[in-house]
């Protein structure tokens, strides 16, 4: 970093993926406790709000395809810009639902050359082998993500 202290850099970490557990809060709490110079960003995590933003803003759709298209387009404005601005993208895959959007986010981040950390249970390792292959690190707990962030950001 050309002699710059790593702590002087303000890092932006995008938290993508599963919305049904507290993994984001655990990472944010751990980073705060470690006094890391990080801002976190994430997609809209209110499922209904995310699914219905298109029709709420642009008008009702009778066809569910167009209902989803409106929402996905609007959500993509946020997601693309936040991933492009991120230094690190953390992608969480949960076991309850398939997160196709998370896989897309990981691919987009990879195409942009972003540093990627995947986070998922061991049972998903085989299914996510290609996504994990593009990642810089693969974690099973939010605390491991925090430890990586501490290592990368703090002077060691």
In short:
With 156 residues, this protein is an alpha/beta fold. It contains six helices and five strands.
Task: Describe the model.
This protein is α/β, with parallel strands linked by helices and 156 residues long. The chain has one domain (6-47, 84-153): 3-Layer(aba) Sandwich (Rossmann fold), CATH 3.40.50.450. It is 48% helix and 17% strand. The chain contains six helices and five strands. α1 links the parallel β1 and β2 (38-41). The longest helix is centred in the middle third of the chain and has 22 residues, at 64-85.
Topology diagram in text:
Layout (H helix, E strand, L loop, with lengths): L10 E7 L5 H11 L4 E4 L5 H12 L5 H22 L2 E6 L6 H12 L3 E6 L8 H6 L2 E3 L2 H12 L3
Parallel strand pairs: 1-2, 1-3, 3-4, 4-5
Helix pairs in contact: 1-6, 2-3
């Amino acid at each position: 970093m050309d002699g710059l202290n790593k702590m002087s850099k303000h890092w932006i970490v995008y938290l993508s993926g599963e919305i049904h557990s507290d993994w984001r809060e655990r990472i944010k709490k751990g980073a705060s406790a470690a006094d890391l110079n990080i801002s976190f960003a994430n997609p809209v995590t209110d499922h209904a709000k995310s699914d219905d933003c298109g029709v709420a803003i642009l008008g009702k759709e009778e066809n569910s395809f167009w209902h989803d298209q409106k929402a996905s387009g609007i959500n993509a404005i946020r997601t693309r810009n936040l991933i492009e601005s991120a230094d690190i993208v953390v992608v969480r895959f949960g076991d309850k639902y398939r997160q196709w959007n998370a896989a897309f986010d990981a691919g987009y981040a990879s195409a942009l050359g972003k540093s990627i950390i995947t986070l998922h249970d061991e049972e998903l390792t085989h299914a996510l082998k290609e996504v994990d292959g593009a990642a810089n690190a693969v974690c099973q707990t939010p605390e491991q993500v925090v430890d990586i962030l501490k290592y990368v950001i703090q002077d060691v």
